[in-house]
Structure formats: structure tokens, C-alpha cells
TrEMBL record:
Keywords: Methyltransferase, Transferase. GO terms for biological process: methylation. GO terms for molecular function: methyltransferase activity. This is Methyltransferase domain-containing protein.
Length: 297
């Protein structure tokens, strides 16, 4: 059983630190990262360690525009997360921030991520907890009431991990199966693999993009909660190494946080504490066991 506590650092820094610790255990190995939810948020900072980053997310014009501007992705795929190509046991780290609560069939999506994770690999999850007063208000209030505060959940200037973008040379478009919002049957452009052209041309740095879109709306499947993820990990034989709570969503409301906090405490009182007002989000560091006697997905 893990202690529920407040993280000493924000989720992004914590995840980057855990990723660097994992990379230090494998100094001669390239770290393969699955950036789950690449259309929103920022990547992991592994410093100078060699890595390859693959992004996946749902298909929408806003998520595609943001994904195209990310300098840290080597390949990416947008579409139905139940069908996007994910080779088994191919990734060392799965980074899923603000994704689980905003996708349908979240348990099936998690199963695909776990199957794509190497034994001993890490799954870094940050989500808004549906079993909180904030989660209740977020899924019941009209969207026009929620939008002003939610736009501040992601900083306007996204601090991507420092990584030079290789100069554009020959590139290949990666097909993905048509799914949610797909372009129809057959193949559609889903991403690109960047390769440096022959010759001494130096790497071309990519400027940090300016983000002006609001986060995607949350759906809040049953597993999108602290208790739901704990249950999922027990049923799949995963180990929750660390677990923290935070109030980032409430703090991001800025001047309106006082009223939002009052509403959350009112909901908590009406539900007799079943929906807590003490936190709005949960951060988990999950490890897939490499013991051969553990359940293998």
C-alpha cells in the first residue's frame, strides 16, 4: 500500500526525474518513450540520454496542430487509441498526462499501453480524479462555465524538454488505421519520421511553440480516478511505486479559485465526504514487474 501524499515537485518535474533515474539504470540503452496524449502537455526531460519518442493521441484539428509543433517527437500517430499501432513490449516508459480522463474506453486504452510496455518499465500517469468534488463539477457544469479556468491548465508557452530538432531531410509518413475522427478507410498521414540529410549540415533548433488552445474536454471513465487506477493496477499485476495528490486544477483557476473551492467544499459536504475537496488530481508512478512469475499482459 502506498502513502497518499503531496508531491514535493510538480508532476512534470517528478516524471522527468523518475525517467532520468530509469535511464541511469540503463546507460548503454536508448530509452523508448510513448508520449500518450501528445496533443496536450509537454514531454519528459532525459537530459543528454539517448531516446526515441513516439506520440499518440485522439484525432482532432486542435490536437493535430499542437502535435505538429512538438520538437521532441520522432514519430506520432493520431486516431482511435484502441487501434493505433503499438508494438508489444517496445517502450521503456509510457507518459500519460491528462489523457486517461479524456478518452472513452479508458481501460482498453490502458491495456494497450501496458502491453506496449517492457517488463520493468514505468507508466507515469497524471489525471484529474473523477471521484472528487472538482471532477463532479467538471463533468456536470455546462462547458461555458468551465472553459475560462480550464484554459489556464496548460501554460501558454509550453516548456518542452530541451532537445534539438534534426534538420528536415527525407521523411516518411506513418499510416494509421482510420478510427475516431479518422480520414476514412485506408491510410492517412499520421506522423513523420525525421532523418538528417547527408552532409555536415548542423542540427536546426526548433522554436518553442506558443499554445493558445484550451484542453480537451474530459469524459471521466470509471477507471479515471485514484480508486479506479488502484483497482486496475491490482487486477493487471502492476505495482504503484508512488502516488501523490494535488490541487493544480483548482489553483489554475486563478482569481476564480475561491468560488471554485467553495463549490467543491459544498459538494463534499453534501456527499458527506464521498467526493473529496482536498485534491483535484492524482499522480502515479507505476511499474510493470519483470518477475517471470508476475502476470504478463
Amino acid at each position: 500500500m502506498t502513502d497518499l501524499r503531496t508531491s514535493p515537485v510538480n508532476g512534470g518535474d517528478l516524471f522527468s526525474e523518475r525517467a532520468r533515474q530509469y535511464a541511469l539504470e540503463k546507460p548503454l540503452q536508448r530509452i523508448h518513450i510513448l508520449e500518450a496524449g501528445c496533443g496536450w502537455g509537454t514531454g519528459l526531460d532525459l537530459g543528454d540520454h539517448e531516446r526515441e519518442v513516439t506520440g499518440v493521441d485522439r484525432e482532432s484539428p486542435e490536437l493535430r496542430a499542437y502535435t505538429c509543433e512538438r520538437p521532441d517527437l520522432d514519430t506520432w500517430h493520431l486516431g482511435d487509441l484502441r487501434t493505433v499501432p503499438l508494438p508489444p513490449r517496445a517502450f521503456d516508459i509510457v507518459h500519460a498526462s491528462y489523457l486517461i480522463e479524456r478518452v472513452p474506453h479508458a481501460e482498453l486504452v490502458l491495456d494497450r499501453f501496458v502491453a506496449a510496455l517492457k517488463p520493468g518499465g514505468l507508466m507515469l500517469v497524471h489525471l484529474r480524479d473523477r471521484d472528487t468534488a472538482f471532477g463532479f463539477l467538471d463533468r456536470t457544469l455546462p462547458r461555458w462555465l468551465r472553459a475560462p479556468g480550464r484554459r489556464r491548465l496548460r501554460p501558454e508557452r509550453a516548456p518542452f524538454a530541451e532537445r534539438p530538432r534534426r534538420a528536415r531531410g527525407a521523411h516518411a509518413r506513418v499510416p494509421y488505421p482510420a478510427g475516431e475522427g479518422g480520414a476514412g478507410p485506408g491510410h492517412a498521414p499520421a506522423g513523420e519520421v525525421l532523418t538528417a540529410p547527408a552532409g555536415p549540415e548542423p542540427a536546426v533548433p526548433r522554436p518553442v511553440p506558443v499554445v493558445r488552445t484550451s484542453p480537451p474536454a474530459a469524459i471521466y471513465d470509471r477507471v479515471a480516478s485514484r480508486s479506479g487506477l488502484r483497482w486496475y493496477c491490482v487486477m493487471r499485476g502492476l505495482v504503484v511505486a508512488e502516488e501523490y495528490t494535488s490541487r493544480q486544477a483548482l489553483e489554475a483557476l486563478g482569481a476564480g479559485s475561491g468560488l471554485a473551492d467553495l463549490l467543491c467544499r459544498l459538494v463534499s459536504a453534501v456527499t458527506r465526504g464521498r467526493l473529496t475537496a482536498d485534491h483535484s488530481e492524482v499522480t502515479l508512478v507505476i511499474r510493470k514487474p519483470e518477475n517471470r512469475f508476475a502476470r504478463v499482459i
